[in-house]
Structure formats: structure tokens, C-alpha cells
Amino acid sequence: MIKEIAFLTNKIKGSHKTIILIGFMGSGKSTLGKELSNILALPFCETDSQVEKNTGISISQIFELKGEDYFRGYEREVLLSIPKSSVISTGGGIVEDYENRQFLKGITNIVIWLDLDWEVILRRIEYTDRPKVVALNPQKLHELWFKRRPLYQECADITYRGNSVAELIDLIGSIF
Ligand code: S3P
Q1: Tell me: the pLDDT tens digits for 73-119?
Q2: Whose CA is nearest to atom 8 of ligand 1?
Q3: pTM for the whole thing?
Q4: d(CA 99, CA 163)
Q5: Does the C-beta of 59 come closer than 6 Å to ligand 1?
């Protein structure tokens, strides 16, 4: 197993691929992304944390003080400059931007869409203070989830509906 993982890591590094996790809020991008990066021994980066670092304020404050468009501008800048041979967890709205979608579909990325059922997503996010959750009621959030699904689909090399890092690693291995 360890040998196989080292082999996969070398393949990823050798091809300068970036593993990018996409999906709606609450789909497990950060958790699975961190686990993946640990097991594959690749650097991990979250676009949201990087935006917070670059702006010096929290995502909630950016939405509140500057608005969503401002946030999306920073988010795009971060995405377009992510390091190769790493694991990236993105914000749920990253696919709303055309330029981001073109970038995600580039051949140096392996894009994994975490496609969870709405009931699971809602349970995970409904009492959080994410700006979109605060601003929208459950029905509007469901509409947003439904509207974004084809956009995630458009960018995805792998669609995964679970939460097992071992299964994900098998799927990544199968596309090399
Ligand atoms: C957003 C998702 C958030 C964050 C911001 C906007 C969205 O990231 O980028 O609050 O529009 O879906 P998570 O998906 O990590 O919660």
C-alpha cells in the first residue's frame, strides 16, 4: 500500500498535476483534502484561507464589508496562482466564474467533485455562519445547490459521492 501511494505521488509530481476538490458548501472538501494531502505527502492549500491571508480579513467580513463580487475577484486570483503538485480545497462558489471553470478544466488539474445528497449538505451547513447560509433560506440554498451542480459536473474529472480517502485515492490512481 505504502509503495503504491509513493508511486502515485511520484506520478502526480512527475506530471505536475494539481488535485483540486470542488463541491457545494459542506461536501467535505477541506476534510478530505487535508487527508489526501497527508497520505500523498503533497502540500495542501485552501482557497478561502488564502483569500483571508491576502486580504487580512475573514470571508464573512469580506462579504459584509466589500460584497460578493470583491470576494470572487480575490478567489479567482488565488485559484489562478495555486501551486502545482499539491492538493487544493476550493470554496463552493468557485465554479460560478467562467474564467475559473476554464482554468479548472485545464489538463494539469485533476478535479474531484464531491457530490453529496442535499439532505446531507443541509444538515451540515444549516447552522453555520457562512455568508451564503446566513443570507439565504433553505429553499434558496437548495436552488443554489441545484443551479451549481451542472457547473461542478462541467469541471469534474472524477465525481465522488462518499467520504473515504482510500476510495478517492483508488479513483485518482485509476485515471493515470
Ligand atoms: C461560498 C462557499 C464558502 C466560501 C464563501 C462562499 C459559496 O466556502 O468560499 O463563503 O458561495 O458557496 P465553503 O464551500 O468551503 O464553505
Answers
A1: 999 999 999 999 999 999 999 999 999 999 999 999 999 999 999 99
A2: 91
A3: 0.98
A4: 29
A5: yes
